[in-house]
């Protein structure tokens, strides 16, 4: 029989066929040669993704039909990246079309489109959606978590690729995640998270996070360990930010923040509560050609309460700016001798203390130096003389320096002047509560000057070799530096409320700083692949200033003879700001820091702040504020990080804070067991109180399709033990199975 007369081929019994790109297995196959089509019973189709991690893709169905060279159709099929008969994670579809199609990068990808999507784990369905369209190696499920917390009950949280669920092509620069959550004792929740980049072809990036919880009511346990009763209501947030470089010189930043209530972030978004930038709605535009910067800022808040723990603990009021205009010029030359730097600023501002009480905000009353948690914070600040009227402020700073230098050294004598004036404000009550003259002027002038100087010495030893410390050549760089400074202020410290640290936070004084920075460099790596490494970096010095310049909380006594806990003062931890010394936190002190990269696997670090003059701080641990003294080591930390091998990393860190009387020991361990398991441990021990402050343990199991994570944690401050499990798709690169 001639080959041209053959119209079809039928094969039966464990049939396998492959053309290199596709491999078919089935109990029987019929191939239609003229139409280049095939039908496979009990079929398994194997191909692989052409981009990314190049994973294998498996499609299983009772009947699979090839309708074109690069297209397959089936009913009641499952698609996964696992070769197991029952995959760990798979997509079930009532009807499916699998196509090899071009991608925007110029390659090709395996595309799946179907109806009646069912997500399955080990063959058990757990989610249904009417349709699905997307790449075969990336199912719409991103993550699923489950856990238990005392005041929330059992919870389940999921993250989905929204565009794949809707069967829509992903727009350029937009990633959308659909969040579907629920808690047994608190209610259902849903959200949308958008990651944005280079919208409209303009370089930039940002995120929008919209989330809502229908709360059945119950108790919020905040990060401070305070319980707040919640009524049945709708809660959540709409938070977004975007940054864009509109041109080489023009920068835009926009923020939007709306929160439903005072404890939403403190109880449900605790990481953001502790470390996120201030929640605000603002628009910032900056034009910076050459050495010039012109910026406009409009800043307000949609809520009347604050939800940043660090702000509530330090300065629990929001400063609106509608608007602020700032103009800076740096380093203008005058006759090639004098360098002139200037700042001009105008702002229309308003101070808005947070709404609520310590009880409603979920913080302890000692945060505000009181014992009654039902006193409104606004009342505390109103009684301290703060006004909520709009204030117009003009501020300028001018500095003239005469830099000169020689071989290896440089010096710059300088003089400066500052002016800040106010309209429409009334600070009489504020000053009266500090026992200051209420009739002080509505402007301040500061004049001063000094000298900044530095030098550098280098020594190179090309013969240095040491295998123990991985040394190949050495360069020693020694950089002594000093600053001498004096500033005169026409107003006493604290004459104006603190709208902005760089303006009202400036104080006069006399100071001298002497310091040395040492760097020991070597080369590490194999021959032909050596990199320069700062093996040892030391920075230490001392600052001396007149003790009468100190401006501490214990210096503020109101007209009633009681301490003023709400007017601004300087930090109990002194620091010196070399480039604008008037912004320093006064107090004679010594400082030091060290970083020693002993080898590519061992790092040692330490830093400390010391003073030799006793200073007083308030202690709020009792029913009424008391004072105690501190001297010597004020703040310090030291730690070691050891990378034992690619599978094991550990660290130990000691931290001490004298003002808050804290002494903590923190440790961590990450250890990979074989190819598929990884454990992590993270205890924190309170040395002063002799108890664990927190502890956490995690176990990660890496499977071909996803990572499975189990977490147990304990927090002493919250008196809370948590348990959770998490499934992440795809698995974490570098752990477990190869990523191709």
List keywords for this structure.
single chain, about 750 residues, mainly beta, lipopolysaccharide transport protein A fold, 29-stranded antiparallel sheet, eight-stranded antiparallel sheet, 7 helices
Verbal overview:
This protein is mainly β. The protein has a 29-stranded antiparallel beta sheet that branches. The chain has an 8-stranded antiparallel beta sheet with strand order 1-2-3-4-5-6-7-8. Strands 14-15 form a two-stranded antiparallel ribbon. The relative contact order is 0.06.
* Discrete helix count: 7
Low-confidence stretches: 733-740
For this structure, what is the CATH class of the domain at 3-135?
Answer: Mainly Beta
Q: What's the helical proportion of residues?
A: under 10%
Strand content: over 45%
Mean pLDDT, rounded to whole units? 88
Q: Specify the CATH homologous superfamily of the domain at 3-135.
A: Lipopolysaccharide (LPS) transport protein A like domain
- N→C terminal distance: 46 Å
Shape: globular
Please count the beta strands (DSSP E, at least 2 residues each): 39
What's the gist of this structure?
With 740 residues, the chain is mainly beta. It is built from seven helices and 39 strands.
Write the layout of secondary structure elements.
Blueprint: E1 8-18, E2 23-32, E3 37-48, E4 56-68, E5 71-80, E6 89-102, E7 108-121, E8 124-135, E9 141-149, E10 153-161, H1 162-166, E11 174-183, E12 187-197, E13 204-215, E14 218-221, E15 227-230, E16 233-245, E17 250-259, H2 264-268, H3 270-275, E18 281-287, E19 292-300, H4 309-314, E20 317-334, E21 338-353, H5 358-361, H6 377-383, E22 391-401, E23 404-406, E24 409-423, H7 428-432, E25 443-455, E26 457-466, E27 471-489, E28 509-524, E29 531-545, E30 589-597, E31 602-619, E32 626-645, E33 648-657, E34 662-673, E35 677-681, E36 684-686, E37 691-702, E38 707-715, E39 720-728
Antiparallel strand pairs: 1-2, 2-3, 3-4, 4-5, 5-6, 6-7, 7-8, 9-10, 9-39, 10-11, 11-12, 12-13, 13-16, 14-15, 16-17, 17-18, 18-19, 19-20, 20-21, 21-22, 22-24, 23-24, 24-25, 25-27, 26-27, 27-28, 28-29, 29-30, 30-31, 31-32, 32-33, 33-34, 34-35, 34-36, 35-37, 36-37, 37-38, 38-39
């Amino acid at each position: 029989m001639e080959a041209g007369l053959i119209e079809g081929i039928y094969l039966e019994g464990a049939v396998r066929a492959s053309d290199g790109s596709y491999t078919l297995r089935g109990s029987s196959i019929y191939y239609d040669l003229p139409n280049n089509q095939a039908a496979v019973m009990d079929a398994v189709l194997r191909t692989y993704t052409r981009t990314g991690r190049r994973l294998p893709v498996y499609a299983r169905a009772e009947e699979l039909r090839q309708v074109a060279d690069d297209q397959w159709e089936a009913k009641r099929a499952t698609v996964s990246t696992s070769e197991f008969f029952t995959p760990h994670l798979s997509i079930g579809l009532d009807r499916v079309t699998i196509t090899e199609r071009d991608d925007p990068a110029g390659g090709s990808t395996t595309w799946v489109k179907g109806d009646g999507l069912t997500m399955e784990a080990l063959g058990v369905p757990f989610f249904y959606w009417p349709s699905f369209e997307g790449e075969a190696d990336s199912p719409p499920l991103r993550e699923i978590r489950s856990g238990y917390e005392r005041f929330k009950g059992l919870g389940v949280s999921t993250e989905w690729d929204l565009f794949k669920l809707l069967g829509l092509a992903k727009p350029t620069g937009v990633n959308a995640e659909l969040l579907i959550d629920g808690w047994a004792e608190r209610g259902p929740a849903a959200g949308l998270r958008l990651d944005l980049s280079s919208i409209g072809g303009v370089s930039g990036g940002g995120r929008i996070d919209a989330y809502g919880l229908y709360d059945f009511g119950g108790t919020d346990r905040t990060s401070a360990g305070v319980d707040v009763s919640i009524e049945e209501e709708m809660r959540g947030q709409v938070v977004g930010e975007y940054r864009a470089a509109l041109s080489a010189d023009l920068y835009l930043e926009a923020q939007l923040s709306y929160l439903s209530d005072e404890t939403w972030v403190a109880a449900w978004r605790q990481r953001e509560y502790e470390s996120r930038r201030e929640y605000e709605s603002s628009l910032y535009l900056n034009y910076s050609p050459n050495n010039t910067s012109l910026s406009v800022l409009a800043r307000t808040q949609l809520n009347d309460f604050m939800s940043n723990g660090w702000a509530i603990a330090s300065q629990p009021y929001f400063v609106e700016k509608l608007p602020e205009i700032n103009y800076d010029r740096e380093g203008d030359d005058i006759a090639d001798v004098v360098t002139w730097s200037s700042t001009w600023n105008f702002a229309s501002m308003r101070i808005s203390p947070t709404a609520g009480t310590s009880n409603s905000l979920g913080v302890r009353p000692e945060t505000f130096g009181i014992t009654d948690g039902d006193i409104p914070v606004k009342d505390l600040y109103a009684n301290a003389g703060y006004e909520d009227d709009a204030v117009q402020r003009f501020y300028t700073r001018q500095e003239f320096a005469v830099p000169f230098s020689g071989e290896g050294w440089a010096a710059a004598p300088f003089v400066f002047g500052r002016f800040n004036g106010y309209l429409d404000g009334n600070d009489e009550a504020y000053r009266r509560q500090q026992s200051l003259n209420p009739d002080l002027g509505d402007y301040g002038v500061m004049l001063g000057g000094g000298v900044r100087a530095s030098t550098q010495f280098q020594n190179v030893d090309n013969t240095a070799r040491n295998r123990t410390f991985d040394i190949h050549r050495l360069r020693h760089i020694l950089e002594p530096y000093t600053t001498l400074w004096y500033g005169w202020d026409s107003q006493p410290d604290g004459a104006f409320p603190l709208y902005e640290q760089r303006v009202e936070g400036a104080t006069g004084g006399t100071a001298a700083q002497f310091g040395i920075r040492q760097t020991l460099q070597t080369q590490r790596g194999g021959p032909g692949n050596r990199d320069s490494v700062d093996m040892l970096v030391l920075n230490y010095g001392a600052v001396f200033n007149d003790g009468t310049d100190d401006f501490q909380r214990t210096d503020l006594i109101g007209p009633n003879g009681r301490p003023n806990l709400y007017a601004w003062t300087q930090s109990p931890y002194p620091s010196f700001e070399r480039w604008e010394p008037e912004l320093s936190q006064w107090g004679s002190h010594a400082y030091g820091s060290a970083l020693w990269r002993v080898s590519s696997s061992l790092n040692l670090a330490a830093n400390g702040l010391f003073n030799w003059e006793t200073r007083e701080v308030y202690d709020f641990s009792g029913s009424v504020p008391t004072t105690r003294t501190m001297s010597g080591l004020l703040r310090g930390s030291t730690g070691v990080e050891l990378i034992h091998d690619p599978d094991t990393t550990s660290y130990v860190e000691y931290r001490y804070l004298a003002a808050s009387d804290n002494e903590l020991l923190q440790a961590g361990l990450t250890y990979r067991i074989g190819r598929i398991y990884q454990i992590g441990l993270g205890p924190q021990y309170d040395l002063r109180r002799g108890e664990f402050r927190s502890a956490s343990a995690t176990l990660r199991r890496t499977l071909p399709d996803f990572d499975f994570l189990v977490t147990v944690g304990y927090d002493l401050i919250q008196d809370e033990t948590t348990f959770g499990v998490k499934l992440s798709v795809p698995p974490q690169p570098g752990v477990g199975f190869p990523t191709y």
